[in-house]
Amino acid sequence: MYRAPRGTNDILPQEQPHWRYVEARADDICQLYGYERIDSPAFEETALFTRSVGAGTDIVEKEMYTFADKGGKMMTLRPEGTAPVCRAYLEHGMHNLNQPVKLYYIAPIFRYERPQAGRLRQHHQFGCEAIGDNDPALDAEVIDMAWRFFLSLGLRGQSLLLNSIGCRKCRPDYLAALKEYYDPLAAKLCPDCRVRLERNPLRLLDCKTPSCQEMADAAPRTVDRLCPECNGHFERLKKYLQLLDIPFQVNNRLVRGLDYYTRTVFEIQPEDAGAQGTLGGGGRYDDLIEELGGRPTPAIGFGSGIERAILNLKKQSVPVPPLPRPQVFIAHMGEEAEETAIRLASGLRREGIGVVMATDQRSLKSQMRQANAFSARYCLVLGKDEVAAAAAVLKDMQTAEQRTAPLAGLASLLKQALAGE
Ligand code: HAM
Asked: How many angstroms does the Cα of residue 191 sit away from the middle of ligand 1?
């Protein structure tokens, strides 16, 4: 027996109400804030990700699904959504549009991670990118949008972590201070952090090893070494978040796992962080478009895992609406009745009435059992007599009342009955 690959899920019909619900809330919130949907390919040239996410990151070093295509080109299944959107922005000359260009996506993301609850090898992200504007009001708007998205799902108790990690101008000084602090501690670091000290010192701050965390707590803070521009930007962002009544905690160890971030970084944690981890995260990436060959273009965005949102909806027992399904079942006895049933089902569907028709010549009893199992609201029964009279027996499955109704008026009769529900 084949099984779905480790760390991937089939999204079965019974899961679909949750998925449609979360996606619909994402669509709603994007419409409210003026974001338009973009869908990019599931794979891109590998270099796009090594260039943007960064060669020293876990994603690029350990987690990418990379393969040579039949033409020998290196390709990678999308391990995140920001770089493809920036590639599309450049490829389609979106810098000629009104800035910022606001785009969103709902897409599968592939990372070869160690699977556990809430951590998958194929997960799905709802993400937003606002490209072409530097104003901290835009940072506040993106954070507000992420915050409201989780509230609109009905989730409670979320918290916002915020930090600023500076820009090209102030980052080198900060990194020098960080190295100076860590160099004498190198022997006490975990093996991963020893490598980070050489390759990507910023990531020393978010190591999960307890002894490294203690050292990180006492490390120099990015916010103390911001240049005046970055500092002013961060102060204004905090002011706007207060204006918007969004509570936040500045977390000096928040640096995020992708290299493209500048200035603002943020994460939204669920009520009960546990193993499921972060609901969503994002930040500014003011150098990325230039890094990919465009003109200097500031930008900010966020991404959130749909599976994690659903996990938390279930944990908090948030009800989600069921999906609409056919309300009418057609049972039939005999060959003639089946032919009439086929025509009737098709005619009702053309009128916009959802219908399920019994197939196979089963006993009437077994067909009624099927109608019950299907939770049909109404059942139409066709036998020899009904066919001769151009009528059907209409049974109300809730009250068990039944009457004979002419086929000609059935569509409007059912529409009326269903509209009155
Ligand atoms: P990220 O923090 O790597 O950011 O992922 C965003 C969110 O995706 C996480 O907060 C989490 O909810 C979900 N997620 C990540 N990895 C997994 C996984 N293995 N299984 C389940 N869910 C997961 C980014 O990807 C950035 N592109 C976000 C961004 C957009 N920054 C700016 N614009």
From this structure: 25
Q: Closest ligand 1 atom to the C-alpha of 83?
A: 27
Give the CA-trace dihedral at 377, 383, 388, 391, to 10 degrees. Answer: -10
* pLDDT tens, residue by residue, 184-217: 999 999 998 999 898 889 989 988 889 998 999 9
CA distance 199 to 110: 24
pLDDT digits (tens, 9 = 90+) for 18-53: 999 999 999 999 999 999 999 999 999 999 999 999
Over residues 134-167, the pLDDT tens digits come to: 999 999 999 999 999 999 999 999 999 999 999 9
Ligand 1 center–CA 126 separation, angstroms = 9
pTM for this prediction: 0.94
Q: Which domains does the chain have, with CATH numbers?
A: 13-170+226-315 (3.30.930.10), 328-416 (3.40.50.800)
Q: How far apart are CA 18 and CA 325, in angstroms?
A: 15
Residue type, 273: A
Closest CA to 133 of 378, 297, 253, 307: 297
Candidate of 48, 62, 80 to mutate for ligand 1, largest count of ligand atoms within 8 Å of Cβ: 80
Contact in structure between 370 and 358 (CB atoms under 8 Å): yes
